[in-house]
Amino acid sequence: MRVGVITFPGSLDDRDAMRAIRLAGAEPVALWHGTHDLDGVDAIVLPGGFSYGDYLRAGAIAARSPIMAEVIEAANDGMPVLGICNGFQILVETHLLPGGLVQNDHGDFIRRDQRLRVESTSSAWTNGFAEGQEITIPLKNGEGGYIASEETLDQLEGDGLVAFRYLDVNPNGSMRDIAGLRNERGNVVGLMPHPEHAVEAGFGPDTALAMRSGVDGLTFFTSVLQQSVLR
Amino acid sequence: MPTIVVEVMPKAELLDPAGKAVTGALHRLGHESIAEVRIGKRFELRVDGEVDADLLKQVEEVAADMLANGVIEDVIDVRVEDAGAAGETR
Predict the structure, then answer these.
(1) Residue A201, Cβ density class (10 Å: 0-12 exposed, 13-18 middle, ≥19 buried)
(2) How many Cβ atoms are within 10 Å of A225's Cβ, its own excluded?
């Protein structure tokens, strides 16, 4: 399976995402925002960072970059797309996922190992988790507050589209503790915390077992592999 | 050169953390009569030639579609400034 990672000007975690894909057993493929070429990949990751300097709004300009026309088309055709942090912001700016992401309610950039509850396993990127499983992956953002109208929030909850919820601490004022969403079809997932930073012992969050041994993020990338086998 | 000014503000019901931080700083400096600061954006779009109704409509559309995100922001004004009023001093 070939998984593309799109580099935008200002992307920071594109190489981490490629490493995570390789560790999961898939082939990472570098893609460039300024082209219209998805290079025949089977899935796409929109990585974290500060695309186009986050000018205008986080993810707003990236959402309108050349390659996103192909990404939107592929996502609507069912291709798995994962948006991490800035990638999540890009997904809401393209309207592939509803709502918006605003400055953290406390006004500060935040970095922490964040506990999450997996609320939906019915997606290309979460099918390897158990419903209700609690995981820990790093979070780092300044504009991670999820907002949507009450009507949209009720609809998201009713349709089971909340994929992840913050546990212990709501780090950014997200409405209803929402950390991540999936679309109706389950091929598009976006979240603020960073699974690609918890894929290899020695580099991830601390666990009860040992320092930096957390690898909860790897399941995102093995899930999409599993999905391709099942299809 | 005519300039179209577009003003965008965070939705009134949303917390504006940047505005809140500035409000706090103003209070520390003794300006307690300033109850609240909210921070928005002003876009100046310089245009070649005349601004007609058609162009203004285009700008209103692009303001709603791209310059603001309707989920979190409101376009509160789109207007033509007097030629030169905003631009000539630059």
Answers:
(1) middle
(2) 19
Query: What's the length of chain B?
Result: 90
Tell me: the pLDDT tens digits for B42-70? Answer: 999 999 989 999 999 999 999 999 999 99
Within 8 A by CB and 6+ apart from A66, the residues are A33, A34, A35, A36
Distance, in Å, from the CA atom of A71 to the CA atom of A81, rounded to the nearest integer, reads: 8
* Residue B87: pLDDT over 60: no
CA distance linking residue A60 with residue A86, whole number of Å? 10
SS3 A196: helix
CA count, 13 A, side-chain hemisphere, A175: 19
C-alpha to C-alpha distance for B33 and A30, rounded to whole angstroms: 55
CA–CA distance, B80 with A194 (Å, rounded to integer): 44
Residues in chain A with CB shorter than 8 Å from the CB of B72 are 57, 100, 102, 147
Nearest C-alpha neighbor of A30 from the set A20, A52, A13, A15: A15
Span A20-35, pLDDT tens digits: 999 999 999 999 999 9
CA distances from A107 to A131, A144, B19, B67, B88 (A): 33, 11, 10, 22, 36
**Among A64, A92, A99, beta carbon nearest to B66:** A64
- A100: contact with B, CB 8 A cutoff: yes
Q: Which of A103, A109, A156, A181 to mutate to test the interface with B (most CBs of B within 10 A)?
A: A103
* Comparison of pLDDT for B1 and A114, the residue scoring more: A114
Assigned token pair, A111: 């970095």
More confident residue, A151 or B90: A151
- First and final C-alpha spacing in chain B: 12
**Mean pLDDT for chain A?**
96
Handedness of CA B10, B14, B19, B23 (dihedral sign): positive
